Amino acid sequence: MKKTLLLLTTFVIIFCWQSKAQLRLQTKAIPTKRINLQQNQHTGFGSQNTNAACDTLNLLAANNWSQYYYEDPNGGYTFGVGKNSGFSITEDANVFTASGANSNYISGASVYFAYANSNKSEDLNKDLILKVYDDNSGYPGNLLGSTSIKLSQAHQDVLNDALTTFKFATPIAVPASKVFYISIDHSNFSWGSGTRDSIAIIANADDETAGAAYQLFLDNSSSHWQAVNETYAGNNGGLDVSLFIFPYLSNTPDGCGIVLPVSILNFGGFIKDNAAYLNWSTAMENNNKGFYIERSKDAQNFSNIGFVAGAGNSSQIRRYAFQDISVKDMLATTTYYRLKQMDLDGKFSYSKVLALNLKNVAQWRLFPNPVKDMATVELNLTTSSAVTVMVFAQDGRVVANTDKGILTAGTQQVFINMQSLAKGAYTVRVKAGSDTYSKIIVKE
Predict the structure, then answer these.
(1) Which of 201, 303, 378, 401 can bridge 79 by disulfide, Cβ–Cβ 3.0-4.6 Å?
(2) Share of the chain above pLDDT 70, in %
(3) Statement: the pTM of the whole predicted model exceeds 0.70
């Protein structure tokens, strides 16, 4: 059994890299910099043609990943700029396999950095380069294109707990094999001799995903690519991680916007003193006019009761609230709410329906069951509580793990992406404060 990485725990592990060197990793969680990356099903932005909708690879799945940066005890970072002996790592890459109708062009990518800074102000003007390669027998092959930003931009994104976005001037065609690699080239940065260019790409924990990370080694003026699970082969089978790099794909060269669609993290509320108090939050907003709040007494026929303006474009977590003081006029035991998220160009999408009940209701429920893509955990919290949701396979492996932080009292909905899981039965375990709930769910 491979090691277990514990959040908020720092430790050092020794690995071998072929016969040349001993590479060490110091693994750290980033509890103060967690971004919840879960998306809703709002797609088709950037074009009126839904066939040109933007697919963001790995973004939805990454909502269930742990978030770590890996340090070199000698100085610097494993996925980024570090202090190595006799060789240097100049690029860190992740492999992707594209499929579906919206996977013909790569418009750009977003990257999640733990650190992006320098102790020399002039180095903030250095270029941070994103590259795309085709596949060559399981390793990065021919360079297909590149683009760059300044280190100062990535630095500001880190300060704002935001993803860093790279955009290609001309979208790059996905190779015929549908396999490609995206790398961060940091060869012009350094760590040592009084210079501390701090570049660190976030990755997940060992074994949360199949090994997808690669590194370009420069050794005695000769360079070669190597898979991370080969480099750290002493790790009881290899270090299997994915980097937090998220490519944007579309079906046409102009079909993909370069910022994420509006991403609703949770939608909840409660009824008190004849008023309903609704709250929700977003991780990303693109072209967002705002949210119409709609209400119903039968969960079928909704009417608009208010509007809350959105942020337009944002890569920060934003929190919203709305008070329905006329809920008593519904004369209903249960009142249903939903959000109609409206873009500036008139496109819209709906949230999940939230049911607020005046009577005592079950503490939690899980639906739909069976599920095809997205499952919903609905909790009725008596007090503000820390909420985590874990999904276990039948062999006990954790296949999804979501930390929602502190959710306010009332009815709260948490969304679980099960699209990538194999068909079969899974156990969903919910921890809300000191309470724990479990239930079997079937993936169709």
Answers:
(1) 201
(2) 81
(3) no
